[in-house]
Amino acid sequence: MTGEVLNYSGARTTNRSLSHMDRFLNLEDIEVSADSSPVLRIIISIVYSALCVVGLVGNLLVLFLMKVKQGVKRSSINLFVLNLAVTDFQFVLTLPFWAADTALDFSWPFGDAIAVERPLRSGSINGV
């Protein structure tokens, strides 16, 4: 009677969502393959690199202009924009690592010293 439930009419029905629950009993059973297309990986790496260059130039320009204009008017909006530019600048600095990781079929070439950055970019705080 596994997987069978009674509905409101009293008839027996099969719960199909329970029939495949034992497919992934532990995480080692899950096989996730990366995309095997090297052309796509290279295109993504080029896009990451271009975004890095544009982001660095743009954020440096914002930081420079905020520094020049900061003496004229200090406001919470200007502080907010400055903080956004600094945060985005830090994010953009990680894009070359993403590009290399993607181009090399998601094999991390930088060793354990820079491996701390990987959980941070995936949104995980504790590295899991």
Write a concise synopsis of the structure shown.
With 128 residues, the protein is mostly helical.
Q: Can you give a write-up of this model?
A:
There is one protein chain. The protein is flat. The protein has one domain (37-128). The chain is mainly alpha-helical. Helix 1 (38-70) runs antiparallel to helix 2 and helix 1 (38-70) packs antiparallel against helix 3 (95-103). It has helices at residues 38-70, 76-92, 95-103, 117-121, and strands spanning 4-6, 12-14. The mean pLDDT is 75. A two-stranded antiparallel ribbon has the order 1-2. Helices cover 50% and strands 5% of the residues.
List the helices and strands and how they pair.
Blueprint: E1 4-6, E2 12-14, H1 38-70, H2 76-92, H3 95-103, H4 117-121
Antiparallel strand pairs: 1-2
Helix pairs in contact: 1-2, 1-3
**In the residues, how many domains can be counted?**
1
What structural class results from the helix and strand content? mainly alpha
Give the integer mean of the pLDDT values: 75
**Main beta sheet:** 2 strands, antiparallel
Give the count of helical stretches: 4
Overall geometry: flat
Total strands: 2
Helix content: 40-55%
- The Cα radius of gyration reads 24 Å
Strand order of the largest sheet: 1-2
Beta-strand proportion: under 5%
Low-confidence stretches: none
Q: What is the CA–CA distance across the termini?
A: 37 Å
SSE series = EEHHHH
